[in-house]
Amino acid sequence: MGCKWLFLILILLMVGLSTSIHLPTIAANIFGNVTENSGITSDCSMSIQLYMENLQAPFDDPWALRMLDATSGIPTGLIFSYNFGEMGNFKQCIETESKNKVIKGNYCLGTISLPINVIDSTNSPSNQTKVEAYFKTLTPFTNEDLLKASLGINPTWALCLPSNCTEKDALEIMNVNNSMGFEFTSFECQTSEDVNVPLSHGAIITICVLSLIVVLMFASTIYEMRGVYKQYKKPQNRVFTAFSIYSNGKALFKASKSPSEIACLNGIRFLSIVWVVSGHIFSIYTSGPVANLKDVLDWTNSLESMIMVSGTLSVDTFLVVGGTLVVYVFTKAKVQGVKFNIFKYYIHRYLRLTPALAAVVLVSATLLDYMGSGPKWNYVKSDFADNCKQYWWTTLLYVQNYVNVNKMCVGQTWYLNIDMQLYLISPIMLFLLWRYPKAGGGFVILCIMTFIVVPFYIAYVDEMAGITTNFYPKNPKNDFMNYYYLKTHGRAAPWFIGVLLGHILSLIRFRNYKFSRFNKTMGVILWAVCLATLLTCALGGHSTLRSPNYDRLGNSFYIALIRPVWALCVAWVIWACAMGYAGPVNTFLSHPLFQILNRFTYSIYLIHVTLLFATVFSAKISIYFTPLYMAYLFWGTFMFTFGISILWVLAFESPVINFEKIIFNKK
Fold it and tell me: What does the alpha-carbon distance between residue 336 and residue 527 come to, in Å, rounded to a whole number?
């Protein structure tokens, strides 16, 4: 007990020396005369009164001191570093409880409304002048900083109250009685009961389902290993070995060679998913609590940030690969005499994609609530888990890029929607390309041109900015994601470029069309042009598309051409590797290691965002952004995701592939 008293006395001395203000005075500056304020509920007023009384003599039962200690102070670096991630002490607040258990901690995170997000989209001079003048009385931000901050990121401030105070009470307390001079727009409150909630029926069912799958995996493995150990001559039942970790693991980590395989696609796909994950790590971590948002904004406006901004082009790489394989595999099967069955064609794709996706949706809808807690955890619940509870069907039907777009479940899977929708219309292309190779090729080229014009029209009419990190959009209210980025009609051109590439490769490899090879010099020139163009696509537009002077035509052409041009370069890389013009590039991309790693690409893609949300929004303190720290977070997140993806593939991908082979009598 003596140590406890000594510790409390030291705290009081430190607070007194650093602020020269008595603790009750600090509390009074926050709460004011709340008992006489009609906006505060009577229960809350009584608790605040007890709070103030307890601070007068906190040593017997220091619950009020713990609450005050858990409440935010004005953070350092708020003005010059944009330290908008102040969140008090979440854990200490919700664990606070008086000895008589009447008073419990209630953690309330408030959002401060600064004038940084109220710039009139009409650019009204009077309003603009008013905003700048008012804001300059608070901070020395420049007009450029105001426009940057209009991204909608606002400071937060935590208030630890007794549990019978509501969110409305917290808002009233801070807006009516505080002396900080800021306006609070909202509060979200949590108590220990909100954090430690019992398992729901859905969570229990999900745990049972996952447990059943684990049991099946072990039972199937034991069944197979028994046969291997006893060296049975008769083949084992394929149904009973479908979940076997032994055979599925051997298949996953075994490299094989096929003369008709386009081996470089393995390396291209795996490197693309690495780019996807790195981009999501940057965007999600910096959307969480950050202590130096100014550095984030400055880095976002730098040339090197284009490496992350251009990570969206990796999606177009996947579209090129997907379009290529659709035609290439179809033509190969036709040449081998396999009859095309459209029913099997669609069923195969749905079975290939959906079980692993459905498992992620199920976990996100039922178990994500219990995977973390923190000041901003409610964001995960409301904008991630709840979306999966209500709109899971749009995900499993692959229509959420058009239906309930703002309520996406497992949001990164919008790409699967585009891929599936294009796959549904692919039989039309396959029929034309097989029956009428030249006319079919001409039709595909017409489709490519059409889906270049469509994005141009959308961008021009809606005055879109070509780069999402442009801080000076002509029309701040344009919906870049909903009108263009997520839509199949806005992103289809790279897929059709892949279809054309697959058609050309299959004509040469499977239908004996003659190809006139060009010399080594021409190959070097084409490689130089390709690499220069890829670099331009990734880094170009940094200066011109970020200018305060909006170039409507330039931005529209950028949106219309950047992805098809990137896709053409990727198509050249695939072509060069397949036709022997790639040398060491093909050796690298076709390495057997990439064949193994590529088998986990899909599960990595499905899992990593859920893990990122669970990590970022369960943080109790803000992070300090540096590019090196982001790189460190990337490798930790990626390797952790990769480990889980191994289990995900063994549980939800490999067994489905085995059952499909059994159903359709495939070897």
Answer: 34
Is there a contact between 253 and 596 (Cβ–Cβ < 8 Å)?
yes
Residue 68 · residue 22 · CB < 8 Å = no
Q: Is 421 helix (H, G, I), strand (E, B) or coil?
A: helix
Which one of 239, 254, 269 terminates a domain? 254
pLDDT tens figures, 304-353: 888 888 899 999 999 999 999 999 999 999 999 999 999 999 999 999 99
Dump pLDDT digits (tens) for 242-288. 999 999 999 999 988 888 899 999 999 999 999 999 999 998 888 88
Expressed as residue numbers, the domain containing 213 is 201-254
Is 208 a domain residue?
yes
- Contact predicate 240/220, CB 8 Å: yes
- If one counts the domains in the chain, the total is 3
Can you give the pTM of this predicted structure? 0.88
In a domain, 10, yes or no: no
**215 plus 181 within the same structural domain:** no
Alpha-helix runs per DSSP H in 198-263: 201-230, 245-252
- 79: Cα separation from own chain's centroid: 29
Confirm whether 14 is domain-assigned: no
The answer to whether residues 311 and 425 belong to one domain is yes
3-state helix, strand, coil in the chain (%, to 5): 65, 5, 30
Distance of CA 48 to the CA centre of its chain: 41
Is 538 in the same domain as 439? yes
Report residue 656: phi and psi, to 5°: -65, -40
Same-domain status, 99 and 76: yes
